[in-house]
Amino acid sequence: MASVWAKSFSNLTVLPVFLLLLLCLPPGGGQKKKENLLSEKVDQMMEWSSRRSVVRMNGDKFRRFVKAPPRNYSVIVMFTALQPQRQCSVCRQANEEYQVLANSWRYSSAFSNKLFFTVVDYDEGADVFQQLNMNSAPTFMHFPAKGKPKRADTFDLQRIGFASEQLAKWIADRTGCSGTTYTDIHSHTIRVFRPPNYSGTIALALLVSLVGGLLYLRRNNLEFIYNKTGWAMAALCVVFAMTSGQMWNHIRGPPYAHKNPQNGQVSYIHGSSQAQFVAESHIILLLNAAITMGMVLLNEAATSKGDVGKRRIICLVGLGLVVFFFSFLLSIFRSKYHGYPYSFLIK
């Protein structure tokens, strides 16, 4: 009986010691596995980035390298539809700007494994679009290294445009930095470098050559320089360009139009008063030109001394231009400024 009690006492003594040893041992197995998995993901992303500045992803790659933990790097994803059958001209334009930004980051001295640029095409990752309830393209999203994306991690393309500089500022904001240069969470900086574009210089040289040649050919008769009608037309062209928003387009770089990938419907007028499409500015320019033409005809009918019947026809044509196209212009204004109460002819 004594031996049995001694054996039981020995077992009770060994058991707490064994449990204490288990608690003291570091949980190295699971942590080591997590570190190895993270290292493999980072190495794979770096390998892909060394080949292309923008990593193409399908549904499986997106879920593994962007959504699934562990991950200590941020990912910028452009969701797009670049296949020709999609007929998304805006996607191609946005992709060009995105490539410029990704190349600027890839070939800068500050390049690191803490930020990657990727793209998911609808035809290669339709399941990703469905998973994120995404029904338009292009769309830019930031997936932070920690936590889930917030509302501000989706780039406001309709309001800001998709110029590389605007994208860089947005990325800087989302990674907790500021300024005109991109700065990631490790204080690495990158500036947007665009490839040389001599189209503006060539166009200016051609314009100067054209004007110089015209002046040379008419060197013996330069009275046309003092032509008031010519200068008036040139001034109107400048006014039309400025009032239609061409300068805003040049600064913000908005898309020409927007095509809904779900139903294929193309929108030429932006629904918000804070943004516009390039096609919209062209429409406004033509409307303003038509209204101006109507006013010119009304003035001509009132001041000329020609045949009364002809003047009456000119007056009616001018009045029709002003009334119809001003109504059209007012209807566009109402569609952008929701709640505006007034309309004329066209609603």
From TrEMBL:
Keyword RNA-binding set for record: no
Pfam family, one: OST3_OST6
Pathway: Protein modification; protein glycosylation
Annotated compartments: Endoplasmic reticulum membrane
Keyword Kinase in record: no
Secretion signal, residue range per the UniProt entry: 1-30
Topological category with respect to the lipid bilayer: Multi-pass membrane protein
InterPro entries to which the protein is assigned, alphabetical: OligosaccharylTrfase_OST3/OST6 (IPR021149), Thioredoxin-like_sf (IPR036249)
GO cellular component, one term: oligosaccharyltransferase complex
The organism's place on the tree of life at top rank: Eukaryota
GO biological process: magnesium ion transport; protein N-linked glycosylation via asparagine
Keywords for this protein: Disulfide bond, Endoplasmic reticulum, Magnesium, Membrane, Signal, Transmembrane, Transmembrane helix, Transport
Transmembrane segments: 198-217, 229-248, 283-301, 313-333
Family to which the UniProt record says this protein belongs: Belongs to the OST3/OST6 family.
Name of this protein: Tumor suppressor candidate 3
Highest classification ranks of the organism: Eukaryota, Metazoa, Chordata, Craniata, Vertebrata
Gene: tusc3
